[in-house]
Amino acid sequence: MSESVDAATVRARLDSGPSPLLVDVRTPAEFESAHVPGAVNLPLDELDHHAGRVARDATEQIVLVCQSGSRAEQARRRLASSGLEDAVVLTGGMNAWAQAEGPTVHGPERWALDRQVRLVAGSTVLVAAAASLWWTPAVLLAAFVGAGLAFAAVTNTCGMAYLLSKLPHNRPTERVDVEASLARISRAGSRA
Protein backbone atom coordinates (compact mmCIF):
# COMPACT_ATOMS: atom_id res chain seq x y z
CA MET A 1 0.00 0.00 0.00
CA SER A 2 1.21 3.49 -0.81
CA GLU A 3 2.27 5.72 2.07
CA SER A 4 0.86 8.86 0.43
CA VAL A 5 -2.04 9.98 -1.71
CA ASP A 6 -2.49 13.08 -3.85
CA ALA A 7 -5.18 15.72 -3.39
CA ALA A 8 -7.12 14.71 -6.52
CA THR A 9 -7.42 11.13 -5.29
CA VAL A 10 -8.59 12.25 -1.85
CA ARG A 11 -11.19 14.54 -3.43
CA ALA A 12 -12.45 11.71 -5.62
CA ARG A 13 -12.68 9.33 -2.65
CA LEU A 14 -14.51 11.95 -0.56
CA ASP A 15 -16.99 12.50 -3.39
CA SER A 16 -17.59 8.85 -4.31
CA GLY A 17 -17.21 7.02 -0.97
CA PRO A 18 -16.36 5.15 1.04
CA SER A 19 -14.66 8.22 2.40
CA PRO A 20 -11.44 8.05 4.35
CA LEU A 21 -11.19 9.92 7.64
CA LEU A 22 -8.99 13.01 7.37
CA VAL A 23 -6.92 13.63 10.50
CA ASP A 24 -5.27 17.05 10.53
CA VAL A 25 -2.13 16.96 12.70
CA ARG A 26 -1.43 20.71 12.57
CA THR A 27 -1.77 22.96 15.58
CA PRO A 28 -5.29 23.98 16.58
CA ALA A 29 -4.61 27.55 15.40
CA GLU A 30 -3.52 26.33 11.95
CA PHE A 31 -6.55 24.05 11.77
CA GLU A 32 -8.81 26.94 12.76
CA SER A 33 -7.33 29.08 9.94
CA ALA A 34 -8.13 26.56 7.20
CA HIS A 35 -9.00 22.89 7.05
CA VAL A 36 -10.71 20.29 4.90
CA PRO A 37 -14.42 20.00 5.76
CA GLY A 38 -15.04 17.04 8.06
CA ALA A 39 -11.40 16.70 9.08
CA VAL A 40 -10.58 15.81 12.69
CA ASN A 41 -7.93 17.95 14.41
CA LEU A 42 -5.51 15.83 16.43
CA PRO A 43 -2.26 17.83 16.73
CA LEU A 44 0.97 15.90 16.27
CA ASP A 45 2.02 16.28 19.91
CA GLU A 46 -1.35 14.86 21.02
CA LEU A 47 -1.16 12.06 18.47
CA ASP A 48 2.20 11.13 20.02
CA HIS A 49 0.44 10.50 23.33
CA HIS A 50 -2.48 8.59 21.77
CA ALA A 51 -0.96 6.74 18.79
CA GLY A 52 -1.69 3.33 20.32
CA ARG A 53 -5.33 4.24 20.91
CA VAL A 54 -5.72 5.61 17.38
CA ALA A 55 -4.10 2.48 15.92
CA ARG A 56 -6.40 0.25 18.00
CA ASP A 57 -9.64 2.19 17.49
CA ALA A 58 -9.45 3.46 13.90
CA THR A 59 -12.42 2.09 11.99
CA GLU A 60 -11.54 3.29 8.50
CA GLN A 61 -8.52 4.36 6.52
CA ILE A 62 -6.95 7.55 7.82
CA VAL A 63 -5.51 10.25 5.58
CA LEU A 64 -3.10 12.43 7.56
CA VAL A 65 -2.98 16.13 6.74
CA CYS A 66 -0.62 18.96 7.70
CA GLN A 67 0.52 22.10 5.90
CA SER A 68 3.12 20.56 3.59
CA GLY A 69 3.28 16.85 4.41
CA SER A 70 6.22 16.72 6.83
CA ARG A 71 4.30 16.52 10.12
CA ALA A 72 1.77 14.16 8.54
CA GLU A 73 4.63 11.85 7.57
CA GLN A 74 5.90 11.92 11.17
CA ALA A 75 2.39 11.01 12.30
CA ARG A 76 2.17 8.17 9.75
CA ARG A 77 5.42 6.68 11.02
CA ARG A 78 4.25 6.91 14.64
CA LEU A 79 0.94 5.24 13.80
CA ALA A 80 2.71 2.54 11.79
CA SER A 81 5.00 1.78 14.74
CA SER A 82 1.84 1.48 16.87
CA GLY A 83 0.29 -1.02 14.46
CA LEU A 84 -1.77 1.12 12.05
CA GLU A 85 -0.11 0.29 8.75
CA ASP A 86 -2.66 1.68 6.28
CA ALA A 87 -2.69 5.38 7.26
CA VAL A 88 -1.54 7.57 4.37
CA VAL A 89 -0.27 11.14 4.00
CA LEU A 90 -1.93 13.78 1.83
CA THR A 91 1.01 14.59 -0.44
CA GLY A 92 1.81 18.29 -0.18
CA GLY A 93 -0.70 18.78 2.65
CA MET A 94 -3.01 21.78 2.74
CA ASN A 95 -0.75 23.55 0.24
CA ALA A 96 -1.52 20.86 -2.36
CA TRP A 97 -5.18 20.75 -1.30
CA ALA A 98 -5.49 24.49 -1.95
CA GLN A 99 -3.73 24.15 -5.33
CA ALA A 100 -6.19 21.39 -6.26
CA GLU A 101 -9.00 23.79 -5.27
CA GLY A 102 -10.30 21.35 -2.68
CA PRO A 103 -13.17 22.58 -0.50
CA THR A 104 -11.82 24.36 2.56
CA VAL A 105 -13.30 25.77 5.75
CA HIS A 106 -11.67 29.16 6.40
CA GLY A 107 -11.27 30.90 9.75
CA PRO A 108 -9.02 33.71 10.99
CA GLU A 109 -5.94 34.05 8.76
CA ARG A 110 -2.63 33.01 10.36
CA TRP A 111 0.71 32.26 8.83
CA ALA A 112 1.62 28.57 8.82
CA LEU A 113 4.30 27.62 11.35
CA ASP A 114 6.84 26.69 8.69
CA ARG A 115 6.46 30.17 7.18
CA GLN A 116 6.93 31.75 10.62
CA VAL A 117 10.08 29.65 11.15
CA ARG A 118 11.51 30.85 7.83
CA LEU A 119 10.78 34.47 8.77
CA VAL A 120 12.37 34.24 12.23
CA ALA A 121 15.37 32.18 11.09
CA GLY A 122 16.04 34.34 8.02
CA SER A 123 15.64 37.60 9.94
CA THR A 124 17.92 36.39 12.72
CA VAL A 125 20.65 35.37 10.28
CA LEU A 126 20.32 38.66 8.37
CA VAL A 127 20.56 40.77 11.54
CA ALA A 128 23.46 38.67 12.87
CA ALA A 129 25.35 38.98 9.57
CA ALA A 130 24.86 42.76 9.52
CA ALA A 131 25.79 43.10 13.20
CA SER A 132 28.94 41.04 12.68
CA LEU A 133 30.30 43.85 10.49
CA TRP A 134 30.61 45.92 13.65
CA TRP A 135 30.80 43.22 16.32
CA THR A 136 32.44 40.03 15.05
CA PRO A 137 30.99 37.63 17.69
CA ALA A 138 27.48 38.30 16.31
CA VAL A 139 28.30 35.80 13.57
CA LEU A 140 27.90 33.10 16.22
CA LEU A 141 24.18 33.83 16.35
CA ALA A 142 23.92 33.10 12.62
CA ALA A 143 25.92 29.91 13.13
CA PHE A 144 23.58 28.88 15.98
CA VAL A 145 20.51 29.34 13.76
CA GLY A 146 22.20 27.41 10.95
CA ALA A 147 23.05 24.57 13.33
CA GLY A 148 19.45 24.55 14.56
CA LEU A 149 18.12 24.32 11.01
CA ALA A 150 20.53 21.48 10.19
CA PHE A 151 19.47 19.65 13.37
CA ALA A 152 15.81 20.19 12.44
CA ALA A 153 16.43 18.67 9.01
CA VAL A 154 18.31 15.64 10.35
CA THR A 155 15.80 14.88 13.12
CA ASN A 156 12.71 16.06 11.22
CA THR A 157 11.69 18.11 14.24
CA CYS A 158 11.79 21.84 14.74
CA GLY A 159 12.33 23.42 18.13
CA MET A 160 11.70 26.90 16.74
CA ALA A 161 8.30 25.82 15.38
CA TYR A 162 7.45 24.33 18.76
CA LEU A 163 8.33 27.59 20.51
CA LEU A 164 6.48 29.71 17.95
CA SER A 165 3.38 27.54 18.36
CA LYS A 166 3.21 28.63 22.00
CA LEU A 167 2.96 32.36 21.17
CA PRO A 168 -0.44 34.00 21.75
CA HIS A 169 -1.09 34.77 18.07
CA ASN A 170 -0.68 31.07 17.30
CA ARG A 171 -3.28 30.01 19.84
CA PRO A 172 -6.76 29.10 18.61
CA THR A 173 -9.87 30.78 19.93
CA GLU A 174 -10.95 27.34 21.21
CA ARG A 175 -8.77 24.52 22.48
CA VAL A 176 -8.84 21.23 20.64
CA ASP A 177 -10.96 18.60 22.39
CA VAL A 178 -8.63 15.61 22.14
CA GLU A 179 -11.19 13.16 23.53
CA ALA A 180 -13.80 14.29 20.99
CA SER A 181 -11.24 13.89 18.18
CA LEU A 182 -10.32 10.40 19.38
CA ALA A 183 -14.01 9.49 19.65
CA ARG A 184 -14.59 10.61 16.03
CA ILE A 185 -11.70 8.43 14.91
CA SER A 186 -13.11 5.38 16.68
CA ARG A 187 -16.70 5.80 15.47
CA ALA A 188 -16.05 7.19 11.99
CA GLY A 189 -17.34 4.14 10.14
CA SER A 190 -16.50 0.60 9.27
CA ARG A 191 -13.38 -0.37 7.40
CA ALA A 192 -13.79 -1.57 3.88
From TrEMBL:
Task: Tell me what organism the protein belongs to.
Answer: Nocardiopsis eucommiae
The record's section on PANTHER family has: FAD-DEPENDENT OXIDOREDUCTASE, PYRIDINE NUCLEOTIDE-DISULPHIDE OXIDOREDUCTASE
A Pfam family in this protein?
Answer: YgaP-like_TM
**Protein name per Swiss-Prot or TrEMBL:** Rhodanese-like domain-containing protein
Q: Where is the Rhodanese domain?
A: 16-106
* Classification via CDD domains: RHOD
Chain segments annotated as transmembrane: 117-135, 141-165
Gene Ontology MF, one: thiosulfate-cyanide sulfurtransferase activity
Task: Name the UniProt key words of this record, in alphabetical order.
Answer: Membrane, Transmembrane, Transmembrane helix
